[in-house]
Amino acid sequence: MHKLEPFSFRRMAWKNGGGETAEIAIGPPGATVGTFDWRISTARVAAPGPFSAFAGIDRTLVVLSGRGLRLVTRQPGEVREVVLGPDSEPYRFAGDVSVDADLLEGEPVVDFNVMTRRGRFSHTLRKMSVSGKALVASDIVVLFCISGRVDCRDDNKPAAARVPLSAGEALVTLGPDTSRSGSVAVSVQCQDATPAQLLVVKLNAGSLLHG
Question: Which of 11-15, 68-72, 145-149 has the lowest average pLDDT?
């Protein structure tokens, strides 16, 4: 289990130069924006404009703060528009598709982004409210704390100490064998009277999620 705090996130310009990204985690180790199998980041969007193109990549996005984004996706024969705010569910789209973003009421937003290379990894991203205990299992598990506090433990190592996670922090848990489904199991326990709000990323080796 690797706890990651905001000061350790790797900051860089967008691929198209239109904004700044804070890279939380990337795989395999040493991968770049052009060679990753999976990548998790946040980004500050301060002005309207196009998203960077990522051929062969599947993406899911969540708005963390700000009024929200209006996204227009264009591909042959189809134009779609979607409005995303902090209360919206995660939005999945292909990195190959042309996407233009506009800021609601002109207010900058911060978003959370998961990307996986098609045929190498797949992913799911969901919001989770934890008031007691919860268990998350996958080949690789990444947790991002939006608010509140939780303690996390690798259930494959019951004697290991719990790792605390607070707002803005992330936790990455890698299994011993990412070709086998469910190689990681992370238990999460809320530490406050108010439920903690988490983003849960499940990464699976291969082109399809295992059961």
Answer: 11-15
Flag whether 174 is in a domain.
Answer: yes
Instruction: Assess whether 91 and 56 both reside in one domain.
Output: yes
pLDDT on residue 203: 96
- Residue 52, pLDDT > 60, answer yes
User: CATH number for the domain including 7?
Assistant: 2.60.120.10
Provide the domain count of the chain.
2
Mean pLDDT along residues 168-196 = 84
pTM: 0.91
Query: Residue 159 belongs to what domain range?
Result: 121-205
Complete DSSP assignment for 141-209: EEEEEEESEEEEEETT-TTSPPEEEETT-EEEEE-S-TTSTT-EEEEEEE-SSSPEEEEEEEEEESSS-
Long-range pairs of 71-80 with CB within 8 A, sequence gap ≥ 24: 71/99, 71/100, 71/101, 72/99, 72/100, 72/102, 73/97, 73/98, 73/99, 74/98, 74/99, 74/100
